[in-house]
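Lab notebook, bench 4. The sequencing result for the construct came back, and we need a structural model before the next group meeting so we can plan mutations. Quick request posted to the team channel:

Model the 3D structure of this chain.
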Amino acid sequence: MRRILAAAALVAAACSSPRGGSEAPPLEFDPLPADPHSYSRPNDARVVHMRWTWRPDFDARTLHGVAELHVRRRPGVRVLTLDSRGLVVERIGAGPTDAHGPAYPHRVGAPDPVLGAPLEITLPPSTGDRVDALVVTVVYRTSPDASGLQWLEPAQTHDKSAPYLFSQAQAIHARSFLPCQDSPGVRFTYDGAADVPERLTAVMSAEGIGGPSVRAAGRRFYFRQERPLPAYLVALAVGDLAFRATGPRTGVWSEPGVVEAAASEFRDLEAMVDATEELYGPYRWGRYDVLVLPPSFPFGGMENPNMTFATPTLLAGDRSLVSVIAHELAHSWSGNLVTNADWSDFWLNEGFTVYLERRIVERLYGVETATRQAILGRNELAATMDEFKDRPKLRRLKTDLAGEDPDDGMNSVPYEKGCLLLVLMERLAGRDRFDPFLRAWFDAHAFRSASTAEFVAFAAARLPDVVARIDLARWIDGEDLPPDAPEFDRSVFAAANAAARDFAEGRRAAKDLGAASWTTDEWLRFLAAAPDDPPASKLAELDAAWGLTGRGNAEVAAAWLARSVRAGYEPSYARLEEFLVGIGRRKFLKPLYAELLRTPDGRARAEAIYRKARPGYHPIAQATLDRLFAEAR
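Done. Here's the predicted structure in token form:
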């Protein structure tokens, strides 16, 4: 923390007033800190724009790409270093196409299991003593097992009518389908085209330009992203897609058989954008659309600009899970507009976004709903802190992930501990001061990366009285939850807590719980408050009264199935297998498999289900679960 405070002092003067709020890209060589998860050397040569043409080959499960990289370099620099993982480079040359201009010598370094391999391109000599610009064109194809892509057969989609492809680049998976400087500190604009088979539609984390053109081999779609973004926010999807508008600048994409349900579930998209703008300034990305993916998508959502990717497990039918969409929208300010400098500063993306998410939920759905979600989040944080008692550095807000997969840092600590720090600052400052403070932070750092040191300096300059009352060193570098961590009004769960207590102690039958009007959050609290070892007969009584095994709400189903495994409640096991085979969301998969792996009988069941389900999981989920099974042996 002393290093952070020292760095903060150096930038405090610059942070005491906004840095202009300009939406132009950063200066060509604003110095960037070294990123332990990238081979690139952007302080020597930096990609500032990309023209990208790509074509999926569904039979070979490879993406064929031509990446025309517009590069600026310092005088004397002869090497452009890019990140890659499993890419097959066919040619690298000068100029705007692969057919003209001289070829550039290149070498691919030794691969690392986490980082992939550096792609080093020898550039022609620079001229003069100033930064110059040149174009480097990389013609390549991906490997069939690219970690950032998932290829689905028609049978693995909802409508079962066409193949499907989608990407997931966070944290460092963009390098598996795109030669790039795969660091959150490097931002670039892009445009390009996608050539896809007839009947299929392509979407990207960019705005579409006109309609598709018809070509001999199918259709070509055109895209343009005029706002600079880091590589992890480059996204693509191809499938049989339909669109429904939910407002003048919002809408939903999905397979035709899902799109109506998705548009109904997410009908508040435009209101969400309006509410966030009122609090934290203009939405700066043009359109805000949501793509509902097939169920193998490994996350609840991914905040790709212009096109949030979302899991179909959010389609509960009652809008009870739309806080995930509020979260992904909030990233349009925290994460996409102002991005963590590297993955050790991940809390600047996610802690801020959880805070904004709950402010959006509060405004649209009420204080009680936001409070319930804050309590559930705090409880999840406590469980995560306990889980990492043997890996204490993962309990810090700013953590050192050098030498580790940054995906391991994607747990509830940066999300919930980061949010709690902001709630504490809000309570000390008052919302009338804290909301303008956050808006000023977004304006001052718009379309830039930011570090923890910069945030500390900015807060010290803008809210000195608040910072003076907080032990920031303990919050940022500490491995515990500080004693001033905010609590919330737990009376919002009074009914669920009382019902759990009464049912466990035999004072109330399952049918008399009064749960007919419970929200998803109340069911989650009830199931969490139940004893750790209820007899299977008690679960049978609950199931008979409330049909929990057959619940379509994925959050409630996952919590119930975990309880069922612990109690050995056999009637739920068919549903458990169906759930694990049919859903690829990592949040649900890991704890359910972990529960099964606790006993020898459960281990055999888990291994049988995983053999069946693994081919349908995304590579990111596969990697997580492979480690889980290896550790359990």
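Residues 1-27 have pLDDT under 50 and may be disordered.
Will bring this to the meeting.
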